[in-house]
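#onboarding

Welcome to the new folks! Below is a worked example of what a typical request in this channel looks like: someone posts a single protein sequence, and someone else replies with the predicted structure as tokens. Don't worry about understanding the tokens yet, we'll cover that in week two.

Example request:
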Amino acid sequence: MQARNHRQAMQYDLSVLITPTKSGGSLSKLAASLLRHFKATHSIQIVVVVPEKQRTDSLYNHLKELKSKVASLTLIPVDEHQKSDVPHWRALAFQASSGRIAVFLEDNAVIEPGWWEAWQNCCNTNDWTIASGLVRPDSERLSRTESAVFFCEYGLFLPTSTGRKIKPLHRVAGNHWAVNRQKISVGNQIESIDEHDWVHQFTSKAQLPFWNENAIVKCNRQIGLKEALAERAMQGFRYGRSESIKSGWFRRLKMIHAGIAITGIQLARLFRVVAQRRMELRLWIRALPLTIALIHTWSLGEWAGWCMGAVAVVFHRNLQDRTKKASEIPNALEPANAMVVKFDEPTNITVPNPHFSGVNREVHGVVTSQRYYD
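Example response:
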């Protein structure tokens, strides 16, 4: 019954869900690219999460023009954000959408020609659950540090040179991926959406994510070396700790003792992909020293996370033993979760704004700000 009601609630063929990212993104540039290459053969919905600092006249003008072309445009205003908020914003956008296919985009990307057609073609098939688009660097604008960050984050999702084939991996690009809502079953109260978790939850080794090779975005993320190193270390630590907590003792022991090999494994995978795709080789060579440094930083953080996760599990088991003796039941161990957005009943928020005449201003869920601009 729940699945049937969910299908009935799908009003559009394609929902494009746009969220801010960690740093250096521009919703205005992304919206401009959506307009520049717009082609529609299906019913389309756009949902945009708009932080306070990106509420500009340029963005509003692009969104007004998009509104005249698409079936629905929904805006979700949020306050100034932390880097850890991105999964919660995806959940907000997903809750507010009702398309059969939901494509997640982040504001560090602009779409390339053929993007709309590529995802609309996916609406015509139902043989996939999770999909990934491809990502290429904005090589004319990226610094050496930013190029290294690109290869660490999106190097596995490079397009290929003409005539070469891509072998899909069991992962998707974090700033450019999609889900077939007819193939998944999720609750009504989604607090966060992480692409890594959804890939492992809804696909298997026998059914890899579908890679949409004709859907390409160009990425330009602004970040300095100090911030990049700190971010790699923290992300690696969080990933390692999370995996350690939910893994069995054998895998945990293996990863702790083989932690020094994490760097080699990640580098080998990236080398193989770049060599096979033969794209951006000059940029790859230019950024290689910093890319190695960033991957090594991630690996050290991941190894530390595996160790700390193991300690957390041992501590929790000791706590269970003690509370059992005292006839108590301890709370289940959960990874730390910062700023979780709690969802109540759907809320309609209407904000008077002359810039948005005719724009759908229904916002589902709880938002942290009701203002579109100052």
